[in-house]
Amino acid sequence: MRRVVSPYGSHSGSWLRGNLHTHTMCSDGYLPPWDTVAEYARLGYDFLMLSDHDALTEVDGLDSHGMVLIPGNEITDGGGHILHVNASRRVPPLKNRQRVIDRIAADGGLAILCHPNWEKEFNHWSQRQLERLNGYHGIEIYNGISERHPGNAQATDRWDRLLGSGRRVWGFGNDDTHKEVDLARAWNMACARDRSVSGIVDALRSGRFYVSTGVYIDAIRVSGKRIIVEARNAQCYDIIADYGRIVARVADAVLDFSVPDMFWEKFTYLRVECHGPAAIQAWTQPFFLQK
C-alpha cells in the first residue's frame, strides 16, 4: 500500500526553539558559560547545548533562565567535527571517526556531523566520508558561522545526496556560536512531548523538528497522500525530491500538496523548503514514500 511516512506523526507537543552548537570561553567562544546561557534566554530560546571543543562544559550548576540545558560537546581534534548531543561522558577525539560515532551511540547520545560545506573546498566532510560512516543521526544543513567563513552555510546539497542514496538522516541547523554576530543565525524547532532533556532529545532522535532561519511553521500534517504545511510567514514552498530535484513550487500561505501516484515510481522521499521575506527559510525533515 502506498503511503507517505512522516516523522512528525500527530506532532502532539510543544514547538521548542533551540541551538545545539554553542562555544563558550571554555574553548574559543566569546562569553563564559553563564553569560552564554543568559544571552540565549534573552533571545527567547527554549533549549541550548554548550558544545565546547573536546571538553564537556558543566551545565548542572548554571542558572538555566528557564531553558532546558542539554549536556554535550563538539569532538574536534583529529578529523571532521561531530556534535555529541546529550553526553554523559567525554568521548575522546579518535582519528577513526566511526569509532567516535559508535562510542556516542554507546553513551546513548546523538551524533551530528558538523558544517559539511565549510572551508574553501566546501568539503570539511567529503561526500565519500558521509556515505561511508554509519550510525550518525544527521548533518548540519545550516551552520551559522559559515556565513562569515569560506564555504557555504547551507548543506542541503549534501543532505539530498545522502537521502537519494537511501540514507535516513535528519537535517539540523545551528549557530556554531563563537562571537556575538553568530547568535540566532539558525535554529531547530523541536516538537517535544515535554519540556525536558529526554523529551527534546527524543524529538530530535525521531525527526520531530524542523530547521529555521526565520520562517515559523505552525503545523505539519500528512493526510493520506497529502502533505500539509502551514507557516505563518512563508511566501512560497518548494517540494524537493531525490538528489535535490524541485518537483513543485507553491506560492500560497499554506502548502496542501497531493503526492501524484507516479512519484512512488520515481522518488523515495519528499521534503519541504519554506521561503519567506529577506531570504529567511525553514526546512522540514523528509517524508518517505513507502510502497
Quick recap:
The chain has 291 residues and is an alpha+beta fold.
Lay out the secondary structure:
Blueprint: E1 3-5, E2 14-19, H1 33-42, E3 47-49, E4 68-70, E5 72-75, E6 82-85, H2 97-106, E7 110-113, H3 127-132, E8 138-143, H4 156-164, E9 170-174, E10 187-192, H5 197-206, E11 209-212, E12 217-223, E13 226-231, E14 236-241, E15 245-250, E16 254-258, H6 263-266, E17 269-275, E18 281-283, E19 287-290
Parallel strand pairs: 2-3, 3-4, 7-8, 8-9
Antiparallel strand pairs: 1-19, 2-10, 5-6, 6-7, 10-11, 11-18, 12-13, 13-16, 14-15, 14-17, 17-18, 17-19
The portion of residues forming beta strands comes to 25-35%
CATH architecture level-2 label of the largest domain? Alpha-Beta Barrel
**Poorly predicted ranges (pLDDT <50, ≥5 residues)?**
none
Distance N to C terminus = 6 Å
- Radius of gyration, whole Å: 18 Å
β-strand number? 19
Provide mean pLDDT, rounded.
Answer: 97
The name of the CATH superfamily of the largest domain reads Metal-dependent hydrolases
**Can you summarize the main beta sheet?**
11 strands, mixed
SS-based structural class? alpha+beta
CATH topology type of the largest domain = TIM Barrel
Overall geometry comes to globular
Q: Return the domain count.
A: 2
Q: What top-tier CATH class of the largest domain fits best?
A: Alpha Beta
Q: Which sequence of SSEs, written as H and E, runs from N to C? A: EEHEEEEHEHEHEEHEEEEEEHEEE
Helix content: 10-25%
The total of helices stands at 6
